[in-house]
Amino acid sequence: MLGALLPVLLLAPGCGIRATDVVEAGEPATVEVAPAGQRGAVLYFVSSSSASRLMPVVRTISPPEGSDGGAWSDDRPSGASAALYLLFEGPTRSEHDAGLRSELPSGRAKATIELSAEGVKATISIPVTRLSQAARQQLICTAATASTADRTEVVTVTGPDGVIGPARCSV
């Protein structure tokens, strides 16, 4: 039996595929998160398939080009703070139907985001110290990508009851 397998074992390493060096293929791919003329924000919601798994969702945070403002003429914050505003609004109907939910309290929380030498600093108007781990990660991941498009940025979240962080997005 071993005698019959020996020729196969000896020929297997030389099956005609030669080793090659690494082949350069250009720059990494980039993705536009919103149509031209609009700003996009990446929000993080909790997947219903796992209590701790966050899923990114891209939302538009500026009015479409050529629109008169319409629903955008309210007092929505702009810039990075708009991402947290949208996060506290919770998932849209279609996002909810796709199995996404939020662990954050719904409503209009006031929020600001600043970028400093120490990382991203988010200040929000709701208590933060008793938030679940998933809710904390929703805030941290959304604030990190809203400010720098880098989920690895250190984020500190301050609420009226205290501070969470500095922490990094776990996604």
Provide a descriptive summary of the structure in words.
By secondary structure, the chain is α+β, with helices and mostly antiparallel strands. Helices cover 23% and strands 23% of the residues. It has 4 helices and 7 strands. Strands 4-5-6-7 form a 4-stranded mixed beta sheet, with helices on one face. It has a 3-stranded antiparallel beta sheet with strand order 2-1-3. Strand 6 (155-159) and strand 7 form a beta hairpin. Helix 2 runs antiparallel to helix 4 (133-148). It is globular, with a radius of gyration of 23 Å. 26% of the residues are buried. Residues 33-38 and 63-74 have low confidence and may be disordered.
Task: Write out key terms for the chains shown.
171 residues, alpha+beta, four-stranded mixed beta sheet, 4 helices, 7 strands
What's the short version?
With 171 residues, the protein is an alpha+beta fold.
Helix content: 10-25%
Query: What would you call the structural class?
Result: alpha+beta
**Spatial strand arrangement across the major sheet:** 4-5-6-7
Total number of helices = 4
Rg (C-alpha, Å): 23 Å
* Record field, number of beta strands: 7
Overall geometry comes to: globular
- Average pLDDT, rounded to a whole number, is 75
Task: Draw up the topology in text.
Layout: H1 2-11, E1 40-47, E2 54-60, H2 81-89, H3 93-97, E3 100-101, E4 111-116, E5 119-124, H4 133-148, E6 155-159, E7 162-167
Helix pairs in contact: 2-4
